[in-house]
Design brief:
31% of the residues lie in helices and 24% in strands. It is α/β, with parallel strands linked by helices. It is elongated, with a radius of gyration of 23 Å. The chain binds nicotinamide-adenine-dinucleotide.
Length: 350
């Protein structure tokens, strides 16, 4: 056991708690010293898996060797656990969505500021390769000026688990997936958002949304379209981005996809073609070699960098990679999305 390692306890030993155990075990400079779950079964499983378990959350808080509390419990409990941990002198890593609304996050941030503790949200999907490849194309203007960015997550298994079906626990797909998708776009497109339009879907009959369609319109007029669906037996591509001189598509998490780039402005005018029951010039295919196809650029990424950054911040060597101001903005965008869906109206934003 190295004295340099930062000691962490995971609170909530469910799906994501176990995933953090796995990643932390693969990460230097951080050491898991125990687990706490309010339910007996996960506590037992944690012991069987060789982890020290705390008998209560108070025991976690009063253990002086514990420097970091990592929260992987249902969404409604994040605020209370975070505030108690910070007040007990711990730094906190919190799962997404950080809280149920922006006001709860503001409360946590105030306490973190008062107690001078680091509070960070695990927006891990910033480290997804599909996103980083799209961001690279966007940042390098590889498609000209990108004006339409679409992200889709389509599944057919409905809302998973138990608490995700219920509003009081912070269930629903906007809080579950929307938070990731919006987070990624808002760190990529560095513009003010003019308006938000959203239509939630309730096809499964739950009290929470089982999917949604969301459109953000930025100051320059570019749009980001998001769609999450849990009753989709076929999936549209996870990314579709179009710029003035190119288009990129990524079909799936295996990075199948391609980039098409305009090579010459010649051949602008086409001979009309018969298409379906009609005739079209506008949609006629381009001539050979006027648009070429390229592979999606690959980007090396490692989610362990999230934990390394957190430790660097604790040691005063870096700023948070996932800034709390960004997280707060995402919470506000989701609030505007709920408002838009309820009113069936476009909502003005910043
Ligand atoms: P889960 O239901 O599988 O596990 C939650 C665990 O927390 C359960 O074992 C439950 O008994 C325990 N728990 C509940 N209240 C508690 C409390 N007050 N104190 C201690 N333990 C408590 O849920 P999950 O899928 O692991 O989700 C947990 C969190 O992780 C959620 O916020 C979710 O949004 C997030 N999550 C993030 C990702 C990601 O990729 N970042 C993926 C999945 C889940």
């Amino acid at each position: 056991m190295s004295i340099d390692k930062h000691k962490v306890v995971i609170v909530g030993y469910g799906g994501m708690g176990k995933q953090h155990v796995k990643k932390i075990t693969e990460t230097d400079r951080i050491e898991l010293v125990g687990v706490f779950d309010i339910e007996e079964e996960p506590q037992k499983t944690a012991q069987e898996n060789g982890h020290h378990t705390y008998l209560s959350f108070e025991d976690v808080l009063s253990d002086d060797q514990v420097e970091i509390v990592l929260i992987a419990t249902p969404n409604d409990s994040h605020k209370d656990i975070a505030i108690r941990a910070i007040k007990a002198g711990k730094h906190v890593i919190c799962e997404k969505p950080v809280t149920l609304n922006s006001q709860e996050l503001e409360e946590i941030l105030e306490v973190a500021e008062t107690h001078q503790k680091v509070f960070a949200v695990h927006q891990n999907r910033r480290w997804d390769e599909d996103f980083l490849s799209i961001k690279k194309l966007y940042d390098e203007n590889a498609l000209g000026e990108a004006f339409s960015i679409e992200q889709r997550i389509h599944g057919s298994r409905g809302i998973p688990g138990d608490w995700r079906h219920q509003k009081e626990y912070g269930g629903g797909m906007m809080l579950d997936w929307g938070v990731h998708l919006i987070d990624r776009i808002t760190i990529m497109v560095k513009e003010k958002i003019k308006s938000v339009y959203c239509k939630m879907s309730y096809v499964l009959g739950n009290e929470v949304d089982d999917g949604f369609k969301l459109v953000l319109t930025f100051e320059s007029g570019k749009t980001a379209v998001f769609e999450v669906g849990t009753s989709h037996y076929l999936s549209l591509p996870i990314w579709f981005m179009t710029g003035t001189t190119g288009t990129a598509v990524i079909h799936d998490w295996n990075m199948n996809g391609k980039v098409a780039k305009l090579m010459t402005h010649e051949d602008r005018d086409a001979t009309p073609i018969e298409a379906g029951a009609g005739l079209t010039k506008t949609m006629a295919p381009r001539g050979e070699n006027t648009v070429n196809e390229f592979p999606i650029p690959r980007v090396a990424t490692d989610i362990r960098d999230f934990y390394y950054n957190f430790m660097d911040v604790i040691e005063g060597k870096a700023e948070l990679a996932v800034k709390n101001s960004d997280v707060l903005r995402v919470m506000k965008i989701m609030e505007a999305a709920f408002e838009s869906s309820e009113l069936n109206q476009v909502v003005n934003f910043e």
